[in-house]
């Protein structure tokens, strides 16, 4: 009778160490993962050649909202009409002149848009300071 009572006793496994291990693994993967998408963009520096300067278009990036001027016209980065103007003018190289307050993310966004539209030769040009009166006029 005593032997039957001992054999029916079920040994339970404690789940506490398993939960601890799962929590530690979850914490490790959360801290070691990166959720941002990293990619590279080829940027060439201007060489100063007069021939290349004539073949290249100059775009001015005016502010962080992505306002662009090309040939006296003003566009936004989302508006692809400036890319059509570049292609219509036969420009396949672009120099980007950047206003001093524009952040890097806006510059990268403009370069990405140009690359997506088939303009692969993009170079950073000058950094300029635009007066407050000119910005308000736009």
From TrEMBL:
InterPro entries according to UniProt: ExbD (IPR003400)
Keywords tagged on the record: Cell membrane, Membrane, Protein transport, Transmembrane, Transmembrane helix, Transport
Organism: Alkalimarinus alittae
Protein name, per record: Biopolymer transporter ExbD
Cellular localization per UniProt: Cell membrane
Protein family: Belongs to the ExbD/TolR family.
Domain of life: Bacteria
Membrane-spanning residues: 21-39
Bilayer topology term: Single-pass membrane protein; Single-pass type II membrane protein
Pfam families: ExbD
């Amino acid at each position: 009778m005593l032997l039957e009572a001992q054999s029916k006793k079920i040994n339970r496994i404690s789940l506490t160490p398993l939960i601890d291990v799962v929590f530690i693994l979850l914490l490790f993967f959360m801290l070691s993962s990166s959720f941002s998408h990293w990619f590279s963009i080829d940027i060439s520096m201007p060489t100063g050649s007069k021939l290349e300067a004539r073949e290249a278009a100059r775009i001015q990036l005016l502010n962080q909202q992505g306002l662009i001027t090309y040939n006296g016209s003003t566009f936004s980065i989302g508006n692809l009409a400036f890319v059509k103007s570049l292609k219509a003018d036969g420009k396949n190289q672009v120099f980007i002149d950047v206003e001093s307050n524009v952040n890097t993310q806006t510059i990268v966004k403009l370069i990405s848009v140009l690359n997506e539209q088939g303009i692969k030769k993009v170079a950073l040009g000058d950094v300029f300071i635009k007066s407050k009166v000119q910005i308000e006029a736009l």
